[in-house]
Amino acid sequence: MTQVxxxxxxxxxxxxxxxxxxxxxxxxxxLLIYAPEKAVAESxxxxxxxxAQLSFIPHCRSDSPLAAETPIQIAEQLDTPPQTxxxxxxSRSIPPGYQRFQSLVEVVGQDEEDRLAARERVRxxxxxxxEVSYFNLGDR
Length: 140
Description:
By secondary structure, this protein is an alpha/beta fold. It has helices at 13-26, 38-49, 112-127; strands at residues 3-10, 31-34, 59-61, 72-75, 86-89, 103-109, 131-136. Helix 1 packs across helix 2 (38-49).
């Protein structure tokens, strides 16, 4: 069963996601970032390239020729995931095939639309029998 981790109340959702991605990279854990909206995928990609000079996070798009050797990948689709260990959802909807992954990371910002969509996802995951954990980013 997929474990779901909700990181919520992020003042800057993208910055919070990048910090979590950095944590995965530090531990050398593979992470697939699901960003079906092109603008979000591009923003994450750009943010990972422009982080602090000594904290580069190797990453690529899941359809890149380098994908087989890159542990952090950004995907606009989840048709054939390169790994099934860890998925980060940057969409406001349930990622297709999320149950193939051991863990799912959700990052929720402070805007009302984001919060409402996250509450719907929580209800769904719980109804599917997933264990859901919560981490408040608002007091950081």
